[in-house]
Amino acid sequence: MPQTDYPALLQRLQHAQEGLDLRALRDRDPVSAPWRFEDPRDQEVIALIAATLAYGRVDLLRAAIERAIAHLGPRPAEALEHLSDAAHRRHLRGFVYRMTDAEDLAALYRALGAALRERGGLLPIFEDALDPQAPDLRAPLTRLVHDLRRRGESTRRGFYYLLADPARGGACKRLNLYLRWMVRGPDAIDLGLWSHRVAPRQLVMPLDTHVQRICRGLGIATRKTADWQLAAEIAGHLRRLDPEDPIRFDFAICHLGISGAW
Questions:
Q1: Buried-exposed string 34-54: b where 16+ CB fall within 10 A, e elsewhere
Q2: CB of 53 closer than 8 Å to CB of 68
Q3: pLDDT in tens, 206-226
Q4: Which helix (H) or strand (E) holds 81?
């Protein structure tokens, strides 16, 4: 395989990035949900809910997010701490979005409520396994997922789908998207709530087959399987362009595919 021309790649991605209206993109993206709140505690939990539901068509998933969080009101962290399982089930009755139903969301909300009450939020759980010297955030993300699965007290397939286990080696696209929102920024897209504790250089690419195809065309993806190793491989190439903030190119890479440029 020919060696990657990093200067040419950087120029191409910067050009793609410059042509983006990031605020307009944010308004059409699942990340718009947490941006509506001002309290970081609310943003942190709404971002996780939005990220876990970020699969399928954008218009449908955004509608699902709105339906899922409607009953949490203007102070969702407080609602999650205090609402009962019965209240969640009552408000979510009839909710179905592809592989996710009301019972799966109720388990997620049970887990988030327990984490808020017992740890004050999600970052303390994540930091239990955080190693600033590690190449990526797989270990602390696994810690967070396992903790929330335990607190959710459910083995339902739909609940586990919302909280994919990084230890199994999958790309965990939606959870890595959540980490991007939490760790990068704050800027026009990402919230940067954890930026004071977690280094953006440790992020890996939120990877799906669409991004895999584009990155293969750009010469920065060699593996055939869209798994964690490939997400880390792509991040390694992007670190050659920006060692401290490699995943800032995520939107530019996605745009290359949407625009038909690749």
A1: bbebeebbbbbbbbbbbbbbb
A2: yes
A3: 999 999 999 999 999 999 999
A4: helix 76-82
The Cα 143–Cα 135 span in angstroms is 16
Q: How many CA atoms lie within 13 A of 126 on its CB side?
A: 22
> Contact 162/53 with Cβ under 8 angstroms?
yes
Tokens of 68: 């899922």
Give the tokens for residue 208.
């799906």
> What are the helix and strand counts (H, E) for the chain?
15, 2
Residue 53 scores a pLDDT above 80 = yes
CA distances from 11 to 3, 7, 15, 17, 173 (A): 16, 6, 6, 10, 26
What is the reported pTM?
0.95
Are the C-beta atoms of 179 and 192 separated by less than 8 Å?
A: no
* CB distance 84 to 109 below 8 Å: no
Taking alpha carbons only, the member of 128, 65, 36 closest to residue 145 is 128
> Which residues are paired to 96 by β-bridges?
101
